[in-house]
Amino acid sequence: MTSDPPDRRTVVTGIGVIAPNGVGTDDFWKATREGASVLGPITREGCGQMPLRVAGQVGGFDAEAAVEGRYLVQTDRFTHYAMAAADLALEDARLRPDENSPFATGVVTAAGSGGGEFGQRELQNLWGQGPRFVGPYQSIAWFYAASTGQISIRGGFKGPCAVVASDEAGGLDALAHAARTIARGADAVVVGGAEAPLAPYSMVCQLGYPELSLGDDPATAYLPFSPEASGFVPAEGGAMFVLEDERAARRRGARIRAELAGHAATFTGASRWAESREGLAHAIRAALEQARCAPDEVDVVFADALGVPEADRAEALALADVLGEHASRVPVTAPKAGTGRAYCGAPLLDAAAAVLAMEQGFVPPTPNVTGTAYDLDLVCGYGRTAQLRTALVLSRGLMGSNAALVLRAGRPS
């Protein structure tokens, strides 16, 4: 993310969440604040015989109530989540499409795998019954850019649109891309992403990840930073945001929830977790520099928390490399331990939790984890009250991307 001109600050004015622990920010934050774990057995059709047993599934989501029928039939579950989260974010921001300025608002989403569930169903029809039984939407529903396209069409947003097709860190990179778009002149961007990796085809693809936890006990399958860590469990869902130019937001009287102050990304290669120490440290350092933030000004860290000992050690060391002695004092949390890692959606959910944590002055705990083997102030058991002005959100992808995002607390209008 290049440095924004002083008069083009990027701020958060709306948040929409579709997560395993809650639909909407109120339910999501309540569960996150309490440290609730919603990990459980995978119940999706066709997944019963898979060696992957535990995941974070979205419950209480009615796609038919959230998405109009004409869009529902031509989109996959991952787009249903993204469209619903975008609606919630727009409602939260009180931002409506301006018929006089349709090119002022853009859309950016991140996606790691696309619409696997939709694609599997259509391919089964192809091989089982023939090409006449494949629907016309197969060509678009699986595509990485489907969520961007459908949100743009449905909302009438004709500004700059994009998709970040990446690993987990792409969620933070999408926010940075949106901020650059605003720096170049857009008034607003609807940005975020959601994933739906819990279908048989998608799960088979994930079984190739050596970092995946195959534990069958939801209480112990995903224990990041713990001596008993044995990998991560996947999840579905994600978050969407409304980002705006600060001056445009203030002109219309919007609530400023937070500021995107800095971002940086690096690449160190797939499963090279020891090397991710250097790459992540470089990203953190560059993000802080862009935010003009001293290391000891970081008030809370939302960790990547892969749950692989080598990766957890590298993350702890990267924080020490950049933050120095402050790394052992600053509160570190990993709420995703209670929901699973929703791939590109995971750091976006962390970013949403970071904004809410700053607003509420409360650091949520890391579910299921009772202690850490690393020199970190990992918040376990119960959350804690704290004055939070600056949050650092970290993400690493299984393919080797590293990203760091600095968020500042919102300033009153």
Describe the protein:
It is built from 13 helices and 16 strands. The chain is of the alpha/beta class and 413 residues long. The protein has two domains: 10-251, 3-Layer(aba) Sandwich (Peroxisomal Thiolase, Chain A, domain 1), CATH 3.40.47.10; 260-409, Peroxisomal Thiolase, Chain A, domain 1 (3-Layer(aba) Sandwich). The strands form three sheets. Strands 1, 2, 5, 6, 7, 8, 9, 10, 11, 13, 15 and 16 form a twelve-stranded mixed β-sheet that branches. Helix 12 links the parallel strand 10 (300-302) and strand 11 (331-333). Keywords: Acyltransferase, Transferase. InterPro entries: Beta-ketoacyl_synthase, Ketoacyl_synth_C, Ketoacyl_synth_N, PKS_Beta-ketoAc_synthase_dom, Thiolase-like. This is Ketosynthase chain-length factor.
CATH architecture of the largest domain: 3-Layer(aba) Sandwich
Order of helices and strands: EEHEEHHHEHHHEHEHEHEHEHEHEEEEE
Q: Describe the largest sheet.
A: 12 strands, mixed
Low-confidence parts: 1-6
CATH superfamily of the largest domain: Thiolase/Chalcone synthase
* Counted beta strands: 16
N-to-C CA distance: 25 Å
Query: Which fold name corresponds to the CATH topology of the largest domain?
Result: Peroxisomal Thiolase, Chain A, domain 1
Helix-strand category: alpha/beta
Shape designation: globular
Radius of gyration: 20 Å
What percent of residues are in strands? 15-25%
What is the highest CATH level, the class of the largest domain?
Alpha Beta
Helix content: 25-40%
Mean pLDDT equals 94
Please report the number of helical segments. 13
| Count of individual domains | 2
